[in-house]
Write a structure and sequence with these properties.
Blueprint lengths: L2 H20 L5 H15 L8 H8 L6 H12 L1
């Protein structure tokens, strides 16, 4: 593999790592706050790409207050 190709792959891998770090995974506390709502409204939603958050947001009015707080905090970030 050429030095240029290796440099490009290295640069791309840094970008992927930064993107993964920017998209924070939910904490155990956040997950627990929304677990029942997830099971009730979004259990058939495939994870990834923000689909679960979008599903929860579509059902926002019916969520428990603890889950609403988690979603509200996520919107601010």
């Amino acid at each position: 593999m050429s030095k240029l190709a290796m440099a490009i792959l290295f640069t791309l891998s840094l970008g992927v790592a930064d993107a993964a770090r920017a998209q924070q995974l939910p904490t155990d506390e956040q997950r627990a706050a929304c677990q029942a709502d997830y099971a009730k409204f979004c259990s058939d939603t495939l994870p990834g790409g923000g689909r679960i958050i979008a599903c929860l947001m579509r059902n926002y009015a019916q969520l428990v207050d603890a889950c609403k707080k988690v979603l509200d905090a996520a919107k601010k970030e």
